[in-house]
Structures are given as C-alpha cells and as structure tokens.
C-alpha cells in the first residue's frame, strides 16, 4: 500500500510539472549558450540563463499551486456536501441519513487533523460490509487487529456499539475505510420502506461523491451459528436478501467489485475454542478459508463449483491436526470436543453451500458477481457452542440434547488480521471503474499533462523556431530577388512596344510575394518570427521600393498602351472614347484622379481580354497590382499627344447632351433606385394571368430613374448639376471643353438632355404595355381562374394600368419626394434658385421650362408635362371622378360577368356552347379604346370561346366513349354486313339497338351533337359555336354519324325493328335449265320455261327462317346446282355472291345468279330510293374511337 501511494505521488500532476521544469531548466542552463540567432546569443550570459530558469520555476510553482488549490477546494466541497443534510419525504429516513452524516462529519474532522488536511478521505480504498443483524460484522472489525488512528478521538466502543450498528459506522484504518452497515439494511425486515430508502440513499451518496470507484470491495458476513440454528425458510430469506443487496450495489454504483464471504462466529461450533486454543498470535492472524484465482473467475460458477473441493481441503487440514491435538489434551471432555471438531465442521458444509448457492447462483436477468473467496473467522469467543452432531441425533432418535458449556470470552480473534491486511486491502485495485467517469478523468488528466508539456516545450522551442524562421525568411528573400532579376531581364525593355500585361506578370508576382512585402504582409510581426529576432522590416523596406519601381516601369506603361489601343479601335464610339480618354489622362497625371473609375474600367477590359475560369487568378493578380499602383505616387509618363488631340476633336464634334444624359441615367444615384417591376405592381397572382410575348420575365422591369420618384428625386437634381458636371470634366476635352460652358450652349444642351429623357421615359412604359399579354388559355379551368383573377379586387390589369398612370403623371411629384416642384416655370425657378444660389443654374431652369412646353393658360408647363400628355388616355381610363367608377372599372365589371358565365359552364360539366353574351359585351366595350385593353379583350374572348368549345367536345367525347363506343365496337366489330368478309353476322337485336330511331347512336346524336350540326347540307357540316369557334370534332366523325342516320332511315322506316319490303321478279333462265327457285327466309319465287309471263312477288326481310337459297333444275351430278347462305343476313350474303347491276331507276336493280354455269336473272325493286342492298353506309360504317 505504501508503494502504491508512492507511485501515485510520483505520477501526479505536480510531480510531472516538476520533472518538465527541471528538464527545461537544465537544457537552458547547459545548452542555452549554443543557441545563436544571427549574431545574437540570447542565453550566453549566466544572468540571462538564470532569469530564464527562474521564470520556468516560478511558472511551475504557480501551476502546482493552482492544481493543489483546485484539488483542496474539490475535496472540501465533497466533504461538505457529503455531510450536508438533505430532506426527504420520510422523517425516519431523514433522521437515518442525518445520523449517517453526523458520524461521517466527526470522522472527517478527526481524519483531516490526523492527515493535516490531505485528501485521505478519497484516496483510501473503501469496503462495505453487509449481512443480517447479529452476523458479527462490527465484532470482526473491532477484533481484526487493524489499527484505527481515530479510535482515541472517537472511541472504539462508540463506533462499534454494544447492541449492534444502528445504521452505518465508518471505520478509518491506516490502509482503508470500512463501512459497517446495519444488519437491517440487508434484511429490511423491521420497516421495509424506511430501511430500503435509507439503504438506497446511502448508495446514492457513495456514487455521488466517489463516482469513479464508490467502493473497492464488499464483505458479506454471515453467522455460522445463525445458519446452524435457523430453519430453511429463514436461511433462504437471508440469502435472498444478501443477493438483492449485492445486485443493488452493482446496479447503483455501476462498478464490478470483489466480494469476500465471511462465515463469522466459527467459535460457536463445538470444539473450536479447544481445537485452536494452542495457536499463537501469528497463527491466529492467518487466513482460514480459500481464495479463488483471479484469472478465469467468472463469479457464480467458480465459487459453487470449487466450494466442495476447497472445503474438503480445509477439513483435511483439520483431520491432520486433530490427532496431535488429541494427544496433547489430557481432559477427557475437552479431548472429546477436539476429536469431534472436524466432524462438526463437516456438518456445516451443506448449509454453507446452500447459502452460497442461493446468493451466487447465476441468472440471465442479473449481473455476474466477482466472488474472491470464502473465509471462516471468529471475532470473540462468547456464547454457547452448537453441537450439530447431537442436534441431528436428537432429532433422529428423539433423545434429549446434551448441554455444552458456555464459551468464555478470551478476547482473542481468529483468522481476521491477515484476511484484511494480506488479502482484501492489497486487492483494492480489482474493482472496475465507472466507464464514463473514468474516461472523463483520463481525458482531464491527459489534457492537463499535455497542456503543461506544451507550454513548457513551447517556451523552450520558441526561440529556435523564430531563429529558423528568420533565417528561412532571409534565404527566401534572397532567392526571390535573384529570380525577379532573371524574370525582369526577360521582359521587353524600353521603349515598351506591347500592352500584354502577361509578359510582366511573373516578375511582378515574384516581387509581390516576397517575404515581408508591406503590400501583402501585415505590419504586425508574425508570432513565430518575433521575440526580438524579426528581420522582416529590413527586408520589407527594400522589397517595397523595388516593387513600386517595377509597377511604374513594367505595369503602368502597358496600361497606357492598352488604353491607346482601345481608343484607336473604337474611334467611332463617342461614349467609349470619352470614358477611355478620361481614364487615359488620369493615368497620365493630366486630370483629377478617380481610382474607382480606373479600377472599374480595367476590370471590365481584363474580363474581356482574359476571360473564363482559367484566367480568374490572372485577373485577380492584375487587380492587386493596380490597387498597389494607385495607392502610391505614380511616375509621370509622356502620353500620345497626337492621339489625345484626335480624340478630343472627335468628341467636341459629337452632341454633348447624349454624353451627359448617359452619365445621368447611369450615375450611382440612378442605378441605386429600385426597378419598377410588373411582379411588384401586379399583385401576387400576376404570373398566373399575364405573360410577355417577347420571352422576357415579368420580373424584368423599368429602371428606377424612369419613375416619378426617380424623376423628381434623382433626375432633376442631376439635371440641375449639368453645368457643374460639364465644368468638372472640361479638362477631358482640353480647350474645347471650355467653349461648351457658354450660357447658350448650356441652355441647348440642358434642353436636349431633358428631351432625351422624356422620350425614353414614355417609350419605356409604352414598350412594356405592348409586351404584356393575357396568358394563353389552355383549359376551361384556367379560363375561369384567369378571368376570376383579372376581375377580382386585386386585378393585375387594374393594378398595372393604375400604377403606370401614376408613374406617367410626372408633373405631380410623389408624396415621398424630397423636392416639391409647383406648377409653372416661375415657381419651379424660384424653388430651384432658393436651393442653389448659383448663376449657372438659372440657365438650367429655363431649359426645364422650355422642355416641358406651355400650359393651357400660356404659362410654361411644369417639368414632365410632355410625358403626362402622352399618357392622357390612360389617366382618363383609370380616373374616378367624384368617386364614380372609372371606365376601367366598368370594363372589369363586364369581365366579371364573363367569369361567371365560364364558371357556370364549368359547373355544368364543360359541355354545351353556353351563353356568350358577356364575351360579346366585353369585346364591344374595349373595341374603341386606346392602349392594350382591346388586345387583351380579344385574347380573353377568343381564348374563352376556344376553351368552351373544347370543353364541350371533351364532354361529348367522354359520353360517347362511355355510353356508345363499347357496345358499338362489340356489336359490329368483324361482323357482317359491316365487314363483308366476316363470317359472323350482326345480331338483329344489336343492329336495332344501335341504329333504330331512339337507338344508341340516334339518341346520342340528338342529345349531344344535333345542335352543332347542320344536317341540311350534303354532306353534313358543323355549325359555329360561341361566336366563331366550332367544337373541334373532325369531319370524319360527322360522316360516320351521317352514315348511321342513312342506315336508320333505310332499315327502320317502319319502326324500331329492321324491316324491308321489296319485290322479286324472274326475268330470264338459262336454256340449259328447266326451272329455278329463289327462297328468301322461307319465301319462294319460282320460274320455269313453261310458266309463261313471270309476275312480281312481294318479299319481306328479315324473315323467321334465316336462310337464303337459289336452286336450278335439273340437278346434274358433278355440277353446282344451288347456292345457299344462312343466317339473318343470308339474303344479303346471297346477293354478294351474285352480280347486281344498276338500272335507270334508282329503286331497281338486276340480280344475275351464275349457278354452275347456268344463268338465272331476277329483277329487284325496293320501292324507295334508299336501296338497302346497295347502301354504301352499311359496309363502310365504323364506330369512331373518339370524337
């Protein structure tokens, strides 16, 4: 144990800090003089090293003091909290815990005095003793032979108690703390709830304040005398109580701890005192029992499997010693007890094993326990010994028990001291730690050690790192300067004849990236290069001077050459020339500098000259070098005078107003104004109803300068500063710029600027009105939705037209305008003159009045009147005079009627033409209006008409496919006479169901198509619906409907069943034949050469027989003598086998039969021009798949 304490102290945090401090101090003292940084040797003198060592030692002391202070505070807080009273809901439990804390407070106070404030309470291992009441737990501790350093202060009898432990006693030994718990905590028989709450509260307290290892082991004490005297039920009850307490220890404390089983009061076994009486002190301190091996000890299986073997070994030792003891004993009575002692011990084997089995038998529902061993002990020899053998004989033979004399206390303990000192306490480390807590401690400890090492090593390594870094800095700077010189020599020299900056970029980048270059390096000295050794300042000054020289020598001339090339290549682009010349003169130091303008110009040029992702870094490098060039005084370079003169002459010949106007509308103040967007004005549903035919998005709007706010708050201010602008930039045109500052020139120029603005302003809104259409209507649902939105309270059309009307009333300033421009040029002039007390502005005021024109009273109109007059039609359209609805309101109301008509059609299923009166009224209301309303009206009207027609067609088609098509296809598909080659016939019932009057096709046509079809024309034709749009059903469908009508009229002239009446008259018979007979559904027509003149015979079809036959006589073998066709359509099939020839009369035809080469001719007369036997519709009709 002492070695363990020494090791813990050796690896503690203060010790590690001391080791590190000693190592660093020795390193500085002995190796410090060898450290040189350049010519400096900071540790060469003893004084410098002494100060460094002192600094290290002082830092170490501070760290150690902080650690000790923190640990002491933590221990004190733990001790204070562990004895602090916590209220519970049970007064009994609260009192119990209060007693526990009172005793612990006394023990801690004395322990701290004895150890002078050390953290002894937490560092010693803790063992908890459990067992039933009277098991001898306290007696075993008191008589264990252990040293109790606090026994004099607290009193041994006060801690142990004569009548047993009331709740828990803390026994503080030199090696461990023993927690002696009350027996009732184990059995919990007196007051179960109170005992259980106190017990669990006690475990919670242990876990809270010793989280890593609440206990180092558990000692289970059980009295052999109790086991011997108790019945089986009581024994099992105590065993189960011990088992439960052990499981609660395992679960509540979260650690796996060793368990030591003590069978106490072995002295009450008959013969114990007599057998062991000769033992000396050292012999009595030895261990009597067995300890299981650590490896392979899985708990319950090991203790139960090895118990018999180990107990037998103990009995063997007793038997071996018993002969010697018998010889030594002269008293017969004592000799008998000595002789019987091994058998007495053997008699308790079974009850001991039963107890262990009940406690440690494995279960899949409980954790496995770590049982270390089983031991027999005796704390004091008091009480009456138990003769197990006599008890058994008395029960067997019914004889009385022989009394054994009471044991007299000898004050000696047996087999306890070494059990604690040599077995339990050395195994304090066998307990596992709580994984979560242990992991947290390991990380905290590792972090503290790492931090201490890092700080210590970092301080020692700082100078070395700084020295190496500065030496590398100098080496890198020298190498880069050499490389720059090589790259610089490769750049084409004076005179510079190219504008390609890429030629100079590598050399410039090399200088820029040099170490300590102020252009890229902060003024703050890098920490890794500091500590008095930094060489960057010396290097940086030289690098900065060289870099500035290179920019003026290689970069600036190429920028000027590039501008010359741009001006020569855009000699006809006046706006480009003006800005390029301005930048050129700025870089040539011949005009006021504007760094932002130069940067913007160059960045645009570089993005075009060196485009793409591959040149992103190149452009970034150019921008950096330009920033550095402009941030320092530049070298004055001679410019291309003839080119400057040429450009100035060209610019002076171009209208100045256009240049000034472009500058105004592109000024930062103008571009900062928010755009006027249809999406902002039209409302949330604008994208659902409007579209731009140009393909532009609705979100693309009009520049903010072309709004009423832009005009009054920005443009007028900018226009009033035209003179200042011309004067400010007169240097760009040289002497010619001064000529443009005359009053007449400024007046003309200002008026022209305003005219340009007014024209563009009006065109912007006219253009957007011409580029907005109603979204194409693709369905009736969409048409209803669009008209609903357009006629609603937030109609995008109303919002947009109203907003444009407001924006084009330029003569009226907006409510938020900062400048109020009253009516009349005089008032305008007075207001502006008050704002600017300059004579040149009077010229601009006159220009404003002249550009606006004259009002109705002859006075100059206010600024913006031109635009307002151009959109007077719109103002009139949206104006609400005296609260009355505007003309636009009336149109939107009619559009609401259109919506309601379309909605009614949709609710009706979409079929039918519907009422189109609202559409006509809507179109009429907008027919004479200016602006886009007429176009929008036509789009809504035509789209709605098409949609309603399409809806009707869709409904009709759905009904056709649901009501008629399935049966029509099934009844006619591949059947005669619709398919002349088909073998199967159309059933007469099906034929009638389809084609009869009020049949499926006839009824469908009457209910769905008749109102759209003109049946007076041949062929039938479609009528027009909804004022111009037909249903969109193909003419082919109409042809099939007409065929169905012809079949109806031909076959069903007399009713709902097909019926045809016709006449058959024989006309001629082959001379090689004697007679011929034609039979139609049981009706015969005969003829022979002797019959005389043939007479017509009336025939009705269909008949009951369903067969058609023509036979010729005489019948000749090997020759066809008849033709037969059966089925309801047999007569039609028989006609198909004959040759039917038309005659001059449309109701008559000639039928020629060729029967085996013999001819028979009949005349067929139908009595109607609708001849069913030659009706094309019958064989060409098809059921349309869709309409």
Secondary structure: elements and pairs:
Blueprint: H1 2-10, H2 13-31, H3 46-82, H4 91-114, H5 120-123, E1 126-130, H6 137-142, H7 151-154, H8 156-160, E2 168-172, E3 177-181, H9 183-187, H10 192-209, E4 217-223, H11 224-229, H12 232-253, E5 258-264, H13 272-276, H14 281-285, E6 289-291, H15 300-328, H16 332-347, H17 349-360, E7 370-376, H18 388-397, H19 417-424, H20 435-490, H21 505-512, H22 536-569, H23 574-587, H24 595-609, H25 616-631, H26 641-652, H27 656-665, H28 668-671, H29 678-681, H30 686-689, E8 690-691, H31 708-720, H32 722-728, H33 735-739, H34 743-770, E9 773-774, H35 780-790, H36 796-807, H37 825-835, H38 840-852, H39 865-870, H40 872-878, H41 887-907, H42 917-926, H43 933-972, H44 988-995, H45 1000-1009, E10 1013-1014, E11 1021-1022, H46 1035-1051, E12 1060-1069, E13 1075-1080, E14 1083-1088, E15 1097-1101, E16 1107-1113, E17 1122-1126, H47 1130-1137, E18 1139-1142, E19 1148-1155, E20 1158-1165, H48 1176-1180
Parallel strand pairs: 1-3, 1-4, 4-5, 5-7
Antiparallel strand pairs: 2-3, 6-7, 8-9, 10-11, 12-15, 12-20, 13-14, 13-16, 16-17, 18-19, 19-20
Helix pairs in contact: 2-3, 2-20, 4-10, 10-12, 12-17, 15-16, 15-17, 20-21, 21-22, 21-25, 22-23, 22-25, 23-26, 24-25, 27-34, 34-38, 35-41, 36-40, 37-38, 41-42, 42-43, 43-45
